[in-house]
Amino acid sequence: MPRKTKKLEKTKKLSSKKVVGVKNKSSQSRLKRGIKKIKAAKLKLICGKKDIELKTKNHLLKISKKRLLVYIVLMIALFSVIWGFSSLKAKSMGREYSTIISAIGENKKALEVSRADAAKEDLLTKENSFIEDFNAKIKDVDFEKLSFEKNIPILMYHYIEPESPTQSSLRRALGVTPENFDQQMKWLYDNGFETLTLSEYFSLIAGQKDIPKKSILITVDDGYRDFFENAAPILLRYNMTATIFIITDLIGSSAFMDWDQVKLLSDQGFEFDSHSLTHPNLRNAIDDKLKSEVVDSKKKIEEKTGKNVNFFCYPTGAYDARVEKAIRAAGYRGAFTTMNGYKVSNKNMFELPRIRITHTMSLDGFAWAVNSVGQNF
Question: What is the DSSP letter of 282?
Fold first, then answer.
């Protein structure tokens, strides 16, 4: 082939390549623009979707707020209905409770009358054998001039009554139910203990006589009617006795024994001693008041029972040297405190201790308290 012809073909090929190169650049440019449009459309689609989701969330939130508001209104309405119903029910229950308490009070009064009648009948039908007057034997004995020291359990009670919703917390704390009192007395009886009155016990000391083994002294403060109704019949059943310290100006009032009941028990061998006229704190009493509380109460009991009163029990357990002096001057042979203990001697005749018995004491605790004394005779 001629050299000129080859050169021409070569030129055509180069021209053809240039044209192809131009076409490729144009395609790439269009491709890039297409890709950009696709990306833009995709982005727009994503944004649109997010916008739809946001709008949906806002719509649901609005619906939730409305529902919550409806729920709150319904709850308030429901609470109002319940509160109104509860108020009506509470008023109704209050009236029912008042009726129940009133009924309890009426039944209690009827029961008290029935118990008093039953106790009186039991005492009247009991054989009234001759009872030695130990009170008179020691009325002039000065025990502080003797020499003795004994250990003996001296039990201290207050209320002997069933528990009830009308009891105060103090009354319940100081009380013992008749059932528990019966168990305690039965335990003493079954274990060979012998009860003595205070004057009987101290008359044995004054006469330097043998004191029965397992002797025990039972004291009951204040003179409540429940002693006559509940405690005395139980004691008589086990052939036991006790000493009762009475507040003389309260005898005959609603919660206390009357003088006929006191006399009836005294004739059956129970001892009655003084717990003052009105149960004041004697440390705060002026001299005239102090003298009246200790002297006049003694005279009143002696007048009603016909027996000497030899012992005094400090109201609320409060005393001092001035009160002790007034007790001695009034002719008492000794005085009892609320202090816990069991030692009796010529050195503490006006500070005699006792063992408090309360509603929380179990029968085992009672037995332990009695047995732990370690008596000497």
Answer: G
